[in-house]
Amino acid sequence: MGRTVRHMTITDPGLRGIAVTSTSIGDVRGDEGFYHYRQYSAVELARSRTFTDVWFLLAEGRLPDLGERARFDARIAARRALPDALQALLPSIADACGTDLAAGLRTALSVLGPLHGLRPLWDAGPERGAEDALTVCAATPTVLAALYRLGEGREPVPPRADLGPAANWLWMLSGAEPAPEHVRAVDAYLVSTVDHGFNASTFTARVVASTGADVASCVVAAIGAFAGPLHGGAPDRALESLDLIDRDAGGSPERWVADRLAAGERIMGFGHAVYRGPDPRAALLRDVAARLGGPLPERAADVERRITDTLARLRPDRPLHANVEFQAGVVMAGCGIPRRMFTPTFATSRVVGWCAHVLEQAAERRLIRPSATYAGPPAPEPVPAV
Question: I need a labelling partner for 90 at 20 to 30 A (CA). Which of 35, 257, 260, 359 fits?
């Protein structure tokens, strides 16, 4: 991809280091191992505030007081229920998409948009756009939990208005009253993953928003990017490394890493496109997992350390550290979330960040239209006769 400015072309296959716009939502300072939402450290927010608080921060530009938090929670809860027509379609969507819940969510949101009368952002105006974004964000967990349960042969569990986002998510997955420690852990996870700079899915959402499309269309496009294993599709795969170490390497992380590198394979859960040192989200979630207790966090921390040391020894020129996916899987498993719901849990958080970017981009009212450096045969050539 490229960007042409006054006949000067800047190219990089992954747009690394190329700023495409400005944002007031947050930033990732990879060399420092730091990221933030608005003016606040994302890690500190995850340790001290709720997901509702951070959702409010991204939507309104400031943190709420207790009264504002309660009112915002009520607004979210009022939008969780799905239209009857969409609920009637969910069994068919679940059958068609099977275990691919990202595909199911894309399909459901494509239906949700017209059922709720979501308007193109070009015409909607800021207030209507914000309401549409709140509707899409609030409905996303309901859709995902329902599709999961239908795929398991169980009836969906209706959302509860008296629960916050993390507690309601756990409730809709299991139908059981969530443990307070699990709610706190999932809440911290949701806060830590709500936004992370101009990643592939966020950029995709902004590109679609620049066309003036409706919020649901922007989110559907973002989900398509998010579903790839190099992006949001990694949390469940990362935790599988613990199983593979036992199965393929006799319990030795060192041997498993060496074998994978020799085969030219990636070490899922390690390395990041932006961070050159430790991922601050991994450190946060490692602490969250440790507070949950049990053998899995202890083993995961030991394996993480041994993999990191082995990578440093075998690839001293390119040290890799655990990223958010490795410890995210440990936290979610410790809270009883099934592995196939790890990525959907990620999506229930990131959709809020996507929508914040969508609304910011829509306010620009300018189409994103980059250029590319042509690298094919010289043109024009005569068209050969048949």
Answer: 359
CA 209 – CA 386 distance, rounded (Å): 44
- Whole-prediction pTM: 0.91
Residue 18 maps to a domain:
no
- What's the angle, vertex CA 64, arms to CA 59 and CA 66, rounded to 5? 140
Q: Report d(CA 241, CA 323) in Å as an integer.
A: 14
The burial of 123, by beta-carbon neighbours within 10 Å (0-12 exposed, 13-18 middle, 19 or more buried), is given as exposed
Q: Are 107 and 146 within 8 A, CB to CB?
A: no
Structural domain for 140, as ranges: 41-180+195-228+342-364
In this structure, are strands 2-5 and 8-11 parallel, antiparallel, or unpaired? antiparallel
| Spatial separation of the C-alpha atoms in residues 341 and 347, rounded to whole Å | 10
Residues 6+ apart with CB under 8 A from 298: none
Number of domains in the chain: 1
As annotated, the active-site residues are: 272, 325
Neighbours of 153 (CB within 10 A): 7
127-147 per-position pLDDT tens digit: 999 999 999 999 999 999 999
Helix (H) or strand (E) holding 11: strand 8-11
- Domain presence at residue 161: yes
